[in-house]
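Please fill in the sequence for the structure shown.

STRUCTURE ENCODING:
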């Protein structure tokens, strides 16, 4: 076991060890699921299945404290009316489910969903009622909560045991399917993720991403039949599950000590600044770069000095997706923050007299795809066909990005895996990186005290350089349909049905073939009601520099567009 796992373990299984403290009985861990839980295809299932390997990991640090049992049943799924031959497929009908309930576990770990792919797609094409998957999943997991409540009513299994509702962990991102498997490159597992996350939220369960840990070595792990992991794959599953238990135990301890506060306390901040504005500011390097990078020449120093003097008179806060923290901006701490975003916020604060809160999600070189959820990229219509065929091909291609032949920008494909060598997440670049690390948390972690979603006042978008061309010599534009898809999907993802300004900064002057992309930007804005800021027509940009140094000119245009659109 590596040092990172020992570090996780050193925090101790605080939450679940506490369960055992009330009794001489071990903490019971029930692994329910399909053939992956069962261990189908393994040479020695009793030793190599993931529940068996999880037991070994737990025993290394808390000998005798935990008992793991395998309640897997091959071929099972969630839908209660789904059939497997002449019998019902649903795990809820299986003797393993009954046995797990009768065992009265303290922890339940579930991996179901893969076997529902063929039926799940019908929820989108009219063959099933939308929401049935969620309802049937809640019914299954709800049995364990109901069992605990029954125990409380009729008495616990022994007189000295305190009965409690078991903690549920389950896979919200399912194990990947390898090339050659029936549902390889199908949208179902990706569309399913949103519903799985919804189930986790409703059940107060802990979601586990089992997709990324297995994807890098999937060709070897699933070599046998393209779906069932070998012993090495089962080890990865066990370690990932172990880390999830550890992480939850650690966070539960912190929450007990510090109180269960919202991640970024936006509710408290906005309550103190009545009538404030909240803007999502997102994009790539021209949104990311701070004023310290445009502060070299004398005229630039004067410009920055002027912006900081204006900032000192404003009440501007910034949430950085990199650390999930709020910062009250001042001339002392703002130079490393988004030059364009900060200057835009200054102008909004001056125009409205209000506090301005910026939700900042930007990274140099990030393509539009990285800001999209996999569910959006894989969206389908009533006919079952992808709404965004180019994006669906990219998202469902399981290869690492620099080997993903569906991804059109060669520079991004080459650069991001290299850059991620220096990031905690490892060297994979998931297509939805910026969504997962940024947008996903905006309505899930940064909420008002009353738990309602953030009420955005507008979206400021400055991105496109990584999607306009293939970035090979000579530069050639990416396919026009691909450009249209990405921008249509983006506006849908970020704005949804909210009637708020969406300000899209058009690509400025530069000696690159960006004409087609500018036209597509304007077309999508016309279609969706977003506001296109034509920086090229305004004469902005540098023919020889992808990063124009005077961000105030861009901020002036964006602020005028915001005032016109409010």
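FILLED IN BY: designer on duty
SEQUENCE:
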């Amino acid at each position: 076991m590596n040092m990172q796992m020992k570090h996780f373990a050193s925090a101790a299984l605080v939450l679940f060890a506490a369960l055992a403290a009330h009794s001489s009985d071990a903490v019971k861990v029930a692994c329910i699921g399909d053939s992956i839980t069962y261990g189908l295809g393994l040479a020695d299932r009793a030793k190599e299945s993931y529940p068996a390997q999880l037991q070994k990991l737990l025993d290394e640090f808390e000998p005798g404290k935990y008992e793991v049992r395998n309640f897997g049943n091959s071929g099972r799924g969630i839908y209660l009316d789904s059939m497997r031959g002449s019998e019902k497929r649903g795990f809820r009908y299986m003797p393993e489910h009954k046995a797990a309930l009768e065992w009265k576990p303290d922890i339940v770990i579930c991996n179901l969903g893969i076997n529902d792919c063929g039926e799940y797609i019908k929820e989108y094409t009219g063959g099933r009622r939308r929401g049935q998957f969620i309802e049937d999943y809640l019914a299954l997991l709800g049995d364990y909560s109901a069992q605990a409540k029954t125990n409380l009513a009729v008495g616990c299994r022994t007189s000295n045991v305190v009965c409690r509702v078991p903690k549920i962990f389950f896979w919200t991102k399912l194990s990947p399917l390898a090339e050659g498997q029936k549902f390889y490159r199908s949208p179902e597992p990706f569309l399913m993720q949103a519903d799985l996350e919804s189930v986790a939220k409703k059940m107060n369960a802990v979601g586990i991403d089992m997709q990324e840990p297995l994807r890098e070595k999937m060709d070897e792990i699933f070599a046998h039949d393209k779906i069932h992991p070998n012993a090495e794959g089962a080890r990865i599953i066990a370690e990932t599950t172990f880390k999830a238990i550890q992480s939850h135990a650690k966070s539960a301890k912190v929450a007990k000590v510090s109180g269960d506060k919202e991640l970024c306390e936006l509710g408290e901040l906005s309550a103190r600044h009545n009538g404030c504005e909240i803007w999502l500011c997102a994009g790539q390097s021209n949104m990311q770069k701070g004023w310290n990078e445009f502060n070299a020449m004398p005229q630039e120093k004067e410009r920055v000095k002027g912006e900081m003097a204006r900032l000192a008179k404003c009440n501007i806060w910034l949430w950085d997706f990199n650390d999930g923290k709020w910062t009250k901006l001042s001339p002392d701490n703002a130079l490393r923050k988004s030059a364009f975003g900060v200057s835009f916020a200054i102008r909004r604060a001056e125009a409205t007299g209000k506090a301005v809160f910026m939700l900042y999600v930007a990274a140099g070189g990030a393509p539009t795809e990285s800001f999209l959820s996999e569910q959006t990229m894989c969206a389908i219509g009533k006919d079952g066909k992808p709404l965004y065929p180019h994006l669906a091909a990219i998202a469902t291609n399981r290869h690492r990005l620099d080997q993903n032949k569906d991804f059109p920008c060669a520079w991004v494909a080459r650069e991001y895996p290299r850059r991620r060598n220096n990031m905690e997440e490892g060297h994979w670049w998931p297509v939805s990186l910026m969504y997962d690390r940024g947008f996903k948390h905006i309505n899930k972690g940064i909420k008002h005290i009353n738990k309602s979603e953030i009420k955005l006042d507008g979206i400021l978008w400055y991105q496109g350089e990584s999607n306009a061309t293939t970035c090979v010599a000579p530069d050639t534009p990416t396919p026009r349909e691909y450009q249209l898809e990405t921008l249509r999907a983006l506006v849908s993802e970020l704005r949804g049905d909210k009637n708020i300004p969406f300000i899209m900064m058009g690509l400025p002057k530069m000696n690159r073939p960006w004409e087609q992309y500018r036209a597509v930007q304007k077309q999508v804005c016309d279609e969706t009601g977003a506001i296109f800021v034509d920086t090229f027509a305004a004469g902005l940009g540098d023919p020889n520099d992808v990063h124009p140094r005077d961000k105030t000119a861009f901020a002036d245009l964006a602020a005028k567009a915001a005032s016109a659109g409010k």
